[in-house]
Amino acid sequence: MPSARIYSIGLFIDGGYYALIDKGLKKEGRRVNLKGLTRYIQQSIAKRFGQEPESCLVTEIHFYRGRYRAADAKRKNLLENERYFEDRLIENDVVLHYKHVYDHPDGSVHEKGIDVWYAMETLELALYRDFDFVVLITGDADHEMLARKLKALKKHVILLTWQYDERDSTSKALKEEATYHLDINEQLAASPRLKDSICEAI
């Protein structure tokens, strides 16, 4: 019998990490199907915690990333691609959080503070929205303490990773701190057809 209770899931995306996933998929002529991935997250959490799939709902999705100012993006021929990328997020009701970045004289990108902002906003929203589950799409070691603090607030913390490099760059400490780790690479190895539902053709 379906549960009468709705379990709320907050999904928080590290934009730089998500872009790397999309970049890796592009080599196959694909990109992330966020609607399909969201559905898979709901199903995975329901299965893991013994709930009916329809009782576990992603109620909010937040996306954090650095972004060049319009003039700089235009000069770098990034503006159109960025707009298309954002359109995909908006179509899935994603709340966008951007912080301006700029180039150093040596060509490196200044994007200080985005990880801290991600952590602070995630913690605050988890508290005020009272999510039952908080899903972090990231691999950054800096978010280990975020996961620990969320658990202190009695939230289940699900770490979702999806590697497109030969080596796994996900922080070991972050994996250990999460309530559980949803490794998409492992899931695809066990069920290759899953890719058809969480990816789409470009």
Task: Describe the 3D structure.
The chain has 202 residues and is an alpha/beta fold. It has one domain (7-113, 157-201). Helices cover 44% and strands 27% of the residues. The chain has 9 helices and 9 strands. The strands form 2 sheets. The protein has a 7-stranded mixed β-sheet. Strands 2-9 form a two-stranded antiparallel ribbon. It is globular. It starts with 6 loop residues before the first strand and ends with a strand. The mean pLDDT is 89.
Largest sheet report? 7 strands, mixed
Query: pLDDT below 50 for ≥5 consecutive residues: which ranges?
Result: none
For the terminal residues, how far apart are their CA atoms? Answer: 40 Å
Give the SSE string: EHEHEHHEEHEHEHEHHE
Strand content: 25-35%
Radius of gyration, rounded?
A: 17 Å
Number of helices: 9
What is the total tally of β strands? 9
What structural class should be given to the helix and strand makeup? Answer: alpha/beta
Helix content: 40-55%
Largest sheet: spatial strand order? 5-4-3-1-6-7-8
Give the topology.
Elements (H helix, E strand, L loop, with lengths): L6 E8 H12 L3 E3 L1 H15 L7 E13 L1 H6 L3 H13 L2 E10 L5 E2 L3 H16 L3 E5 L6 H9 L3 E6 L10 H6 L2 E4 H7 L4 H4 E3 L1
Parallel strand pairs: 1-3, 1-6, 3-4, 6-7, 7-8
Antiparallel strand pairs: 2-9, 4-5
